[in-house]
Amino acid sequence: MAQRDQKSAEFTKAVELYYQSLQKKDWPTSYDMRTVEFKYDVSKDLYLKQMADSGENLTSYKVLGIRLYGDASGDNTAAEIIMEFHESGMVSYSCARWIKRGGVWMCDEPGLSGLLTSTRIPDWITK
To answer: 126: part of which helix (H) or strand (E)?
Structure first.
């Protein structure tokens, strides 16, 4: 996908950076890549403490499918990603949600069960 155009490359780079930060247990980077709504619900201090205490151990991930959502201009503004996760010897499958705000791709929901999640329904689903 990233080889097709620059916009896809930006999305791919953001997704890779986010999940690599989880693999490296780089919790500040993973928090910074979450949406404003998530940050409103979950403070950075709480996130860093709970992630450090969680024992989260993402060893690898694989993107199985992507559904992009666009706006009237044809720009991609949101995405759902079907993913395979390998954590502590277990394999799981889930859907991650991403949204583009101000030209930047942000993780709305990572798809991993051990991570703190926002209590809000994303506005790009409700609109």
So the answer is: helix 123-126
Contact 25, 19 (CB under 8 A): no
Q: By CB neighbour count within 10 A (0-12 exposed, 13-18 middle, 19+ buried), where does 109 fall?
A: buried
Nearest 5°: the CA angle 9, 91, 23 is 50
What are 15-32's pLDDT values in tens digits?
A: 999 999 999 999 999 999
| Residue type (1 letter), 11 | F
Structure tokens at 71: 């706006």
Characterize 16-49 residue by residue with b for buried, 16 or more Cβ atoms within 10 angstroms of its Cβ, and e for exposed.
Answer: eebbebbeeeebeebbebbbebbeeebeeeebee
Tell me the pTM: 0.84
**Per-position DSSP letters for 10-60, written without gaps between them:** HHHHHHHHHHHHHHTT-HHHHHHTB-HHHHHHS-HHHHHHHHHHHT--EEE
